[in-house]
Write a structure and sequence with these properties.
By secondary structure, the protein is α+β, with helices and mostly antiparallel strands. Helix content is about 20%, strand content about 25%. It folds into two domains: about 1-30; about 35-190, Jelly Rolls, CATH 2.60.120.600.
């Protein structure tokens, strides 16, 4: 009886620790092909057969469709350029260079991958075809709960979130990393409770 108990206990511990370690790796390991540019992170191989097993498991668990290799690349940021967590009640400014792409989109998501819907006809996603441009063709984008002139992405509520900047038909998705990737800085402009 004691042998059976010890065997079952060993199996339970092995299965529990194995499941926990696999779930932890899926949540925390970004992958071997992750590109990091300032606060932005992207896995260029996430939608390809060459993706690592953890990236494949992450995609299977989330149920999100990914871009294939050569179709585009999605960059995500959980922190601003100073390393502080992005907060819905704070306002930010995206400024600086963007990689070349046919089209780019910007949206905010909660940590479960759901789009943060601003409601009341407030913009909860932006498409580069509609961005207002500066004289040098750059685009400055405001993100936050308070309306701003120009390009503005609305956030509502409070708590952390993820900014997703996706580039479609871009050389960034397939290049070898020989040239540096230009990505915008995320600068906090103010932080206050939503009204």
């Amino acid at each position: 009886m004691r042998f059976l108990f010890l065997t079952l206990l060993s199996l339970a511990i092995a299965l529990g620790l194995g499941t926990y370690s696999a779930a932890w790796m899926i949540d925390h390991f970004e992958g071997t092909e992750t590109v990091v540019v300032g606060p932005w992170h992207a896995d260029r191989t996430a939608g390809s057969p060459a993706a690592d097993p953890y990236a494949k498991a992450r995609q299977a668990r989330s149920g999100n469709l990914t871009l294939g290799l050569g179709e585009g690349v999605a960059f995500r940021a959980r922190v601003d350029s100073q390393g502080a967590e992005l907060r819905r009640e704070c306002s930010y400014r995206l400024e600086g260079a963007y990689p070349p792409a046919r089209v780019a989109t910007l949206a905010a998501y909660d940590f479960e991958g759901r789009l943060i819907e601003a409601g009341n006809e407030r913009p909860d996603h932006l498409v580069s075809l509609n961005w207002m441009r500066e004289d040098d063709n750059s685009a400055v984008i405001a993100v936050g709960p308070v309306a701003r002139p120009g390009n503005w992405l609305a956030t509502v509520g409070d708590g952390g979130y993820i900014l997703a900047l996706t580039f479609y038909d871009t050389p960034v998705s397939t290049d070898s990393g020989a040239a540096p990737i230009a990505m915008p800085h995320i600068v906090k402009t103010d932080c206050q409770a939503n009204g």
